[in-house]
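Appendix B. Chain record.
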Amino acid sequence: IGLTPLLKMYTLGHDFVPPGIHAGGLRYHGDSALVSQLHYEGLVEALAVP
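Structure tokens predicted for this chain:
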């Protein structure tokens, strides 16, 4: 029995609670390992768009 690879991953946070009605359904509350690594290395910038 092995372990999964340890990869950096940014999430929406442990206190994130999706709205009561969310038709799309956020099933996975995190970014992909590739996007997270690019952000960590400073190659991409995170931007919140209202």
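Further analysis of this model is presented in Appendix C.
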